Amino acid sequence: FGIYCSFLAEEFGRFATRLRDTPEPAGPGSMLDNSLLLFGSASSAFHLSRNYPLVLAGGKNMGFKHGQYINHAGANPQGGPWNGGREPWQQEITHDDIPLSNLFVTMLQQLGVETETFADSTGSVDDLV
Questions:
Q1: Mean pLDDT, range 30-48, rounded to an integer
Q2: Three-state SS across the chain?
Q3: Which residues contact 117 (CB under 8 A, 6 or more apart)?
Q4: Residue 127 class from Cβ within 10 Å (0-12 exposed, 13-18 middle, 19+ buried)?
Q5: How far is the C-alpha of 76 from the C-alpha of 78, rounded, in Å?
Q6: Phi/psi of residue 33, each to 5°?
Q7: Separation of alpha carbons 24 and 85, rounded Å
Q8: Could you state, in order of their start, the residue ranges of all structural domains in the chain?
Q9: pLDDT at 96
Q10: Residue 12 · residue 60 · CB < 8 Å
Q11: pLDDT (tens digit per residue) in 71-88
Q12: Does 7 have pLDDT greater than 60?
């Protein structure tokens, strides 16, 4: 599985690099500056729909701020070695958890879609714009 994940990450990087190196024919910047790429894996620490590792690339001309690592898991990343007790991922989701759909709301808004919600969203991700 690790080899497959490495392959996908390399292909994502290759695609992003090609977009970065291609001038935008209709305006300033590169095609990457005017595109939005989301790469992630549903394989978080325990194959559950929590604590996804994600990469958002591009969108510079859409107002996205990149070059940062945002940890929405806080001090409880819901992974790590088993201590013999109940794992954090087995517990109920708290209201501190931020829905992935908040990222989708932010992406839609920056693409010009007038929306405040998507699926179970609770807002947008202000750290990105």
A1: 81
A2: CHHHHHHHHHHHHHHHHHHHCCECCCCCCECHHHCEEEEECCCCCCCCCCCCCEEEEECHHHCCCCCCCCCCCCCCCCCCCCCCCCCHHHCCCCCCCCCCHHHHHHHHHHCCCCCCCCCCCCCCCHHHC
A3: 105
A4: exposed
A5: 5
A6: -60, -25
A7: 54
A8: 2-72
A9: 65
A10: no
A11: 776 555 555 555 666 665
A12: yes
Whether the CB-CB separation of 36 and 107 falls below 8 Å is answered with yes
Indicate the pairing of strand 54-58 with strand 36-40.
antiparallel
- Kindly report the length of the chain: 129
Cα–Cα distances (Å) from 1 to 4, 23, 43, 110, 128, in that order, read 5, 35, 10, 34, 30
The answer to whether 46 and 79 have CB atoms below 8 angstroms apart is yes
Amino acid 67: pLDDT: 87
- C-alpha 73/C-alpha 52 separation (Å) is 9
